[in-house]
Amino acid sequence: MKIKARGATFVEIDYTPMIDMTFQLIAFFMILVNFGDGEQDQRVQLPASQIAKPPQAPLQVPITIQMVSDGKIIMNGQLLAEVDAIRPFLKAEEYDLQTRKQNPKEATIIIRADKDAKSGLVQQIIRVCQEMGFEKFILRAKAEHVY
Predict the structure, then answer these.
(1) 80 membership: H or E segment, kind and range
(2) Cα(93)–Cα(63) distance, rounded to whole angstroms?
(3) Which of 29, 56, 80, 116 could form a disulfide with 73 if both were Cys (CB 3.0 to 4.6 A apart)?
(4) φ/ψ bin of 56: left (φ > 0), alpha (ψ from -120 to 50), beta (otherwise)
């Protein structure tokens, strides 16, 4: 772009730094964005519920535990064979919360159990979490649309 000044000289503006900064900001925000589906596993098919609704506000300290139909548990991307195997992961979450000066009782455990999973295993997960000091729980379900 050329701008005519009072005299006969023309001034050119170099857009390279502005374009460079714009791309750096785009890359920065793409890295920081939280897509929300990062803790969802396609092996877990949630049950449908007419009363299921999204949370009013984002959770402050969410910890996601998932259970597939055969009773295996997925936590932090690892497939675990039994409920007691989540204890080290919960201990690590508790330590992480304490280093950030947060109370584990304020963390919310999100349980995503497959529609064919046994409810007794979900209760065992809740029991283990309670033994580890966690008190808030949310059970996820898929919203069923009624027409």
Answers:
(1) strand 78-80
(2) 8
(3) 80
(4) alpha
Count of CB atoms situated within 10 Å of the CB of 26? 10
Which secondary-structure segment (H or E) carries 99? helix 87-99
Torsional sign, CA 136, 127, 82, 103: positive
In angstroms, the CA 43 to CA 34 distance is 21
Chain centre to alpha carbon of residue 66: 12
CB atoms within 10 A of CB 125: 20
Query: Pairing between strand 62-67 and 108-113?
Result: parallel
- 134: exposed, middle or buried (Cβ count in 10 Å: 0-12, 13-18, 19+): buried
Q: Is 100 exposed, middle or buried (0-12, 13-18, 19+ CB in 10 A)?
A: exposed
65 touches 43 (CB < 8 A): no
Give the chain's end-to-end CA distance (angstroms, integer): 57
